[in-house]
Amino acid sequence: xxxxxxxxxxxxxxxxxxxxxxxxxxxxxxxxxxxxxxxxxxxxxxxxxxxxxxxxxxxxxxxxxxxxxxxxxxxxxxxxxxxxxxxxxxxxxxxxxxxxxxxxxxxxxxxxxxxxxxxxxxxxxxxxxxxxxxxxxxxxxxxxxxxxxxxxxxxxxxxxxxxxxxxxxxxxxxxxxxxxxxxxxxxxxxxxxxxxxxxxxxxxxxxxxxxxxxxxxxxxxxxxxxxxxxxxxxxxxxxxxxxxxxxxxxxxxxxxxxxxxxx
Length: 263
Known about the structure:
One of its GO terms (biological process) is meristem maintenance. This protein is mainly alpha-helical. It is 25% helix and 6% strand.
């Protein structure tokens, strides 16, 4: 489970030695936050996979795939309505045994096709609150803001950047925290982010290191992707609004391919 599901790397059948350190004291296993550790490892793997020289992706891809299915119905398995899971069942089990969505016939343009599909999404194509309207009432730590960690790997977690997932209007978030060191070369092997261990103290001081959402924002009133009046202008200047280059070349390649994609 640890090496093949939660903390997957590119070695396939091997486990990172650091994982064994968490198994030395079996009576302490249930005291670790395995969920946040898995998410921190996935964040790091996605960062490495974003480099131009990357040739694959590691991490808990089960978590990533289920996240996509929950928030983007257009990418779900075709003609499938996920069942309701019981209180003792894993949420991801809703998707067990389901076939993938339709695929692109020509693998040479597959990536460009899905990039264009992402660029074509509208706010109405996103299911903003798949885990109920106020998920933080059930999982309070989901509003924690600070560092999540897997062994020596630390990543910043900031729910203020996705308030609509909690049923609130999105506001301009505060500036992100900065790591002690960050090297992100084209080769993923040199990808390094170091966060001081002093940041870890925030995990045990939840009340002072969480987004007090009721004071920070207001519930959406008209539609689930509602934002404040100044947010979209800020977003355009601080983000990449499109994945695909706007030069038409990729679009022409995709249009010439035989495509099957069922929504």
